[in-house]
Structures are given as C-alpha cells and as structure tokens.
Amino acid sequence: xxxxxxxxxxxxxxxxxxxxxxxxxxxxxxxxxxxxxxxxxxxxxxxxxxxxxxxxxxxxxxxxxxxxxxxxxxxxxxxxxxxxxxxxxxxxxxxxxxxxxxxxxxxxxxxxxxxxxxxxxxxxxxxxxxxxxxxxxxxxxxxxxxxxxxxxxxxxxxxxxxxxxxxxxxxxxxxxxxxxxxxxxxxxxxxxxx
Length: 194
Description:
By secondary structure, the protein is α+β, with helices and mostly antiparallel strands. It has one domain (about 50-190). It has 4 helices and 10 strands. A hairpin with an 8-residue loop joins β8 and β9 (about 160-165). The longest helix has 14 residues, at about 30-40. The radius of gyration is 18 Å and the shape is globular.
C-alpha cells in the first residue's frame, strides 16, 4: 500500500519535541498535537497522512476509492460517491452522512469536491473491515483505533491493512501495526460476510 508518510530525522524530532515541551505551559491544543507527532517521530514511529493517502490513491477500476479507513471496532466501511468528486466514508451502522452534522468524526470522513476525479453519479459501496490478528489487536479501547486498508468494494475480504491511532484532530496517524491477512483469516472473514 502506498501512503503519504511524514519523515523527520529522530534526533531533529527529539530536539523539536524538547523545544515544544519547554513552552508547554503556553500551548494550545494544536501545539500538543505537534508535540505528540514529534515525540512519536523521535521514538522511530511511522506517521502517515491517511486521509491524504486515500485521496491520492484515487479510484479503482470499480469506481470506488482504492483505499478505505474505518474505526477498528466496526464490521464494515460504507462509501457514498458523488459525481463532483466528493466522497464520504463512514462506518456501517452509523447515521447516514446527510443526517449527521459533525464532519470527520471518528466514524465518518468527508472528502471535499474534486478529491476523486472521474467519479460517476451518486452511488455507494461497502467494504468489509479486515480482521486484526490477535497479536496486533489492542487489549482495550478498540474504538480509539482505525484501520486503513486496500478496499474490496464487494463481498470479498480485504488484504494489507494498517492499524492506526490518530494524533489529535489532524491528518496525522501513527502506524501501530502492518500485516497481510493470511488465507485462513480471509476464509474466516469470508464466512461471516452478510
């Protein structure tokens, strides 16, 4: 999977993190997001721009986005495409996008007009959320994590997911795990596709 990563030398990130930490008494919420990102980069963690990666990956042959993101505790990701290139991804079981006033909350992500060129008329799709292998699965608070994956907008289990944790409200996501679903895991998921 091709993603938009944020890179910085760990020693430089540590230096910048210390500078922000020195002035944390005067910090705003955005400063805490930046400080958290510097801290993760100093620890050698991978940070990606997931929403930007989805838009840059574009549309697949089926007319749906190649990549999808969904909260880790949800069973499926839904997408509503619009002919002006706008798109809304949301977790199955949540309110429809046009009924929910909040934008880009933990269950819904809105991509503005022109994000996806070549989109046809308004239509929707559904992709199954990949299974998180037990050795990568968070012990608690699964709703605080998201999965970015190469979406199969049909009744087929996906492959190649990333387990992410968002930094604040920005488009910065710490990659906690990357894996390929095995044929056993895909077979188990396929049996549960409704």
